[in-house]
Amino acid sequence: MNIPKYDLLTNTDSTLFRFESIGTSGEISKGIAYTKTKKKTLYNLGFGDLIFDPAQNRYIIDDLAVSDNGDRNVVLATVAKSAYTFSEIYPDRNIFIRGSTKARTRLYRRAISLNLKELSETFHIFGAMEDENGDVFDVPFDSNGDFYGFIIKRK
């Protein structure tokens, strides 16, 4: 994607990432986490503001925060950059992406659609649906589709 990206810091196994969003509200720490799901090869991509939770005495990722820092596209490109890194290290792991709200899931669909040609050079991209048992499965991606989320698989 021909969009500027922030520098990423990562843990030793490249499942946690951190970066600083720099915009109209100043610097905001962001976190990205790749976590196992109940499917062996499917990992959830979660991201949001990185905040310290004194009750838990640790940092957490707040995926409901609305930063309005004026750098949405740079933030999304940085998250995509982490997916390239994660999937390069773990090509057998598929990535599940879903917004914390329906509006965010639609935003991710638009971002994928706008960059589909470039993303498709590295990834197989699918829409994700959920069946009556709560199991997630992939279907062909459609820029106009109404999906539960998205699944990307490294080629």
UniProtKB/TrEMBL annotation:
Q: Which InterPro entries match?
A: DUF6934
Pfam families, per the entry: DUF6934
| Name of this chain's protein | Uncharacterized protein
